[in-house]
């Protein structure tokens, strides 16, 4: 019975990861909205964000190497976290010329594996979306990675750590995911405002304009993402308890 359960759990995780990837890759409708699109940022700002994002990516590779070498059993869960980010961040809602509103899906992976690991997973997700779906771009990959794959996961991780002493784990998961989503778009608004300050009002006026437009769709999206992440966490708590115990995210039964 225990062998059958383990096989069933692995099969479920593999099936979810494969179906998630297939459902996005097989989607061929035109993409009118995306992350900061290819060529949208001035060259100077595009290079700047690449330089800022690269050190986190390198540190993330070291973090992932340690995790996979110490606990190779977690590779499947790692793939699931990446697939979850891929699926959610590919659900685009047009928000403003040059960018879009969408869930990010990085909160779950940040809680499971830490923010540095998500800097790699999130960057790879953005790379695949740029190459396969024309969502985002290669020149703007550094900017998109900094907002979604670096700042968002770090915020999610620390929100989870701050709320967990209350003992309300599901609330911590919800807030980590929702606040990371909102923070990602605040950072995107900052990036766009820095690149395109208004003639009257400069950076601050431009930031208020971008953030205000994003908020119309992003606030309900962030709340929805928080609830969805809790649902996935509940599923993992039932069918992936061994992996969560290995990550010290749930306590072994007495």
UniProtKB/TrEMBL annotation:
One of the record's GO cellular component terms: ATP-binding cassette (ABC) transporter complex
Gene3D superfamilies the record matches: 1.10.1760.20
This protein's UniProt keywords: Cell membrane, Cobalamin biosynthesis, Cobalt, Cobalt transport, Ion transport, Membrane, Transmembrane, Transmembrane helix, Transport
Record's bilayer topology term: Multi-pass membrane protein
Pathway(s) it belongs to: Cofactor biosynthesis; adenosylcobalamin biosynthesis
Highest taxon in the source lineage: Bacteria
Keyword Phosphoprotein: no
Entries under Pfam families matching the protein: CbiM (PF01891)
One MF term in the entry's GO annotations: cobalt ion transmembrane transporter activity
Role summary: Part of the energy-coupling factor (ECF) transporter complex CbiMNOQ involved in cobalt import.
NCBIfam families in the cross-refs: cbiM, PRK08319.1
Protein name: Cobalt transport protein CbiM
């Amino acid at each position: 019975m225990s062998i059958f359960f383990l096989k069933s759990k692995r099969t479920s995780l593999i099936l979810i990861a494969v179906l998630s990837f297939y459902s996005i890759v097989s989607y061929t409708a035109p993409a009118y909205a995306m992350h900061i699109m290819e060529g949208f940022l001035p060259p100077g700002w595009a290079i700047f964000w690449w330089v800022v994002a690269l050190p986190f990516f390198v540190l993330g590779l070291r973090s992932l190497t340690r995790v996979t070498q110490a606990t190779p059993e977690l590779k499947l869960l790692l793939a699931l976290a990446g697939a979850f980010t891929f699926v959610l961040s590919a659900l685009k809602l047009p928000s403003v010329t040059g960018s879009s509103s969408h869930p990010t899906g990085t909160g779950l992976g940040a809680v499971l594996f830490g923010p540095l690991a998500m800097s790699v997973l999130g960057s790879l997700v953005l790379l695949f979306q740029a190459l396969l779906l024309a969502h985002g771009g290669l020149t703007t990959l550094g900017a998109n990675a900094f907002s979604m794959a670096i700042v968002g996961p770090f915020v999610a991780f620390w929100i989870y750590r701050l709320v967990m002493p209350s003992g309300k784990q599901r609330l911590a998961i919800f807030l980590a995911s929702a606040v990371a989503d909102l923070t990602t778009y605040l950072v995107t608004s900052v990036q766009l405002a820095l690149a395109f300050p208004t003639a009257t009002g400069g950076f601050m006026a431009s930031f208020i304009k971008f953030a205000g437009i994003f908020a119309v769709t992003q606030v309900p999206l962030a709340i929805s993402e928080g609830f969805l992440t809790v649902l996935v966490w509940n599923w993992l708590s039932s069918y992936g308890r061994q992996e969560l115990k290995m990550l010290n995210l749930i306590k072994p039964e007495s």
